[in-house]
Design a protein that fits this description.
It is found in: Cell membrane; Bacterial flagellum basal body. The protein is of the alpha+beta class. It has two domains: about 35 residues; about 70 residues. It has three helices and four strands, in the order H-E-E-E-E-H-H. It has a four-stranded antiparallel beta sheet, covered by helices on one side. A hairpin with a 4-residue loop joins strand 3 and strand 4. The longest helix is centred in the first third of the chain and has 27 residues.
Amino acid sequence: MMMQTTPQPHTQTLPSTVDTAMPGSILVNVGGALVLILMIIAVFAWLARRTGFARNHPKSNQILSVVASHSLGQRERVVVIDMNDKRVLLGVTPGQISCLATFDKTPDEGATQVVSASVDFQSTLMNLLKKRKTEPAE
């Protein structure tokens, strides 16, 4: 008995676009792109925070606005805020906020309510203290 062999169809192998020599190469490519995108987002967020992008756009219906701020230590600050027709000097620590002084806001100060973040704190505080000294005692 003679066995007849049927011819096997010839199968072609198509070249793959994925490198099969390194099984994790797709994961490395996708992971690398994801890390790159996250780093770009982090850089833009840091720049926005550093330049004060969100703080420089005051809303028209704000009751409080920070005029100036100065760091006194690692976690202590002195802050001057506008509140309605008053300026308030606050001492801010991690445990509490203390009102150090209250000043009346003059009409010309109300017109310049939008103040840049680069205002010199020392000159603002000195101007407030000079105005307070010149006011008659009540």
